[in-house]
Request: fold
Amino acid sequence: MRNQYLKNVATLRLKSDQCMGCGKCIEVCPHNVFLMEDKRSVIVDKDRCMECGACVKNCPFNAIEVKPGVGCAYAIIMGWLTGKEPSCDCSDSRSGNCC
Amino acid sequence: MLVQDKFKKRHYIRGGTSVVQISARELKTIQTSTQLTFSDILGSWKARWGINRMNFKVEPGLYRVGNPSNSSRVLVTANYKMSFDSLRKELNGLDVWILVLDTKGINVWCAAGKGTFGTRELLNRIAIVQLEKVVSHKALILPQLGAPGISAHEVAKFSGFKVIYGPVKAKDVKAFINSGMKATAEMRRVKDSAYDRLVLTPVELVSSFKLSLMIFGVLFLLNLLGLGPFGFVDFYAYMGAVLVGCVLTPVLLPWIPGRAFAWKGWLVGFIWAVLVNVLNGWTTAPQYSGLRALGYLLILPAVAAFFAMNFTGSSTFTSFSGVLKEMRIAVPALIISIFLGIILILSNSFIKL
Reply:
């Protein structure tokens, strides 16, 4: 059974006029968000996006935008408490999966 | 296990009649094997339980698997020992290089998110190990999950090395290499099985202990002051809620209705709270107070919801925007629920006094 997270929240945007169809985003996306259609990449299911930012970093034409961030409640709580951007820096205090 | 191999190269630069000799930095590579020892496996098991986890590292640098030559493939990984071990154990029979980046002992995916498994570290490491002197080709195989930290086109621009993204899982690396660097769609997707989630739950449980001990301390003090007769029922009711949030909900994740983690944890926690009440004679025993029952119904599901929500950090598919949206509703609701529950249970014990 496939896990599904909240709908209509991902900040992913694809500017298809800048896409040259290199397919790098399809290669790096861990959740099959993109698909090649008529030699251009299209977003097939935005709700699968976890905002990891792999596509943005590897798009040579800057055609993709996303606000990358950690999908981690603990990091967000620590961000609220310390007034900093939430980050995966829980290494010292806690040993969550990620950090 | 590690045999160090050092050899020196010298460059001769001819200028006029004199010969200027410059001694170059030595090339250092480290031999490793594809066999994991008992202590490697024990180390992984300990890390899963949060023991010595932040110090489970290998030295960054260039490692030899088998007997690689200057045309052998170069695989890149993180210096978290569990990452390094899970890669090398899949390379049996191959002659390859492993380039280990300094990710401060963090796994590939998380380090990529933080940027320590990143373009800059990769470029630095290539320079430090003098990779261009070791291999004659210009290709690197990176784990696909390293992509959030790496700009393949920038690596190519600054180092000349072409980044090839391999499969998500190390177990597919051999098939990937043998098929001429072709990953199937299946190899490219992050899978998330109940077992994958189960192995992550011990660390969640261990990290919940600190908070639990603080709560027990407060309850103990209340007992001492005669304010609350907290006993065994409260203990197992609470521990059950922690287990629901840290283990049961994560493992059963896709089968629990709804999408938000806090909601899923709340739902299973609610079932647990009803169970605790029924076991203690709610509705059958008249001495079991409705205030206490209601208090459990307010507190236990909220505790489970909190720990389930924290599992977002261990999941493979939650986005920052999603978790933020969930928390904006969940966090105030959980605080109010727990606060009201505590008032009910305390006032219940006052009435009894």
